[in-house]
Specification:
The chain has 87 residues and is of the alpha+beta class. The protein has a single domain, classed as 2-Layer Sandwich (S16 Ribosomal Protein, Chain: A). Helices cover 32% and strands 36% of the residues.
Length: 87
């Protein structure tokens, strides 16, 4: 199954994350299928940015977001768009 989750990169004590589509059996920093966006928790500006079209395509094809990514998708309103497109 494909998961949409965070992949850590960046310097020590300055984390940055990529939002990626990845096989759930792979390690956190393993080989990804597609890069969908990024999340920077320590920046003061826009922290979560994602390619909405790619994200909706993956969600429509059955990819499951992790709890953290789901929370961010709900904040951005992308999850609501996904649920409306499913109906």
């Amino acid at each position: 199954m494909v998961k949409i989750r965070l992949q850590r990169f960046g310097a020590k004590k300055k984390p940055s994350y990529r939002v990626v589509a990845i096989d759930e059996r792979k390690q956190r920093d393993g080989a990804i299928i597609e890069n969908l966006g990024q999340y920077q928790p320590v920046s003061s500006g826009l922290q979560f940015s994602v390619d909405e079209d790619k994200m909706l395509t993956w969600l429509k094809n059955g990819a499951q977001p992790t709890e953290t990514v789901l929370r961010m998708l709900k904040k951005q309103g992308i999850w609501k768009k996904h649920l409306e497109s499913v109906k």
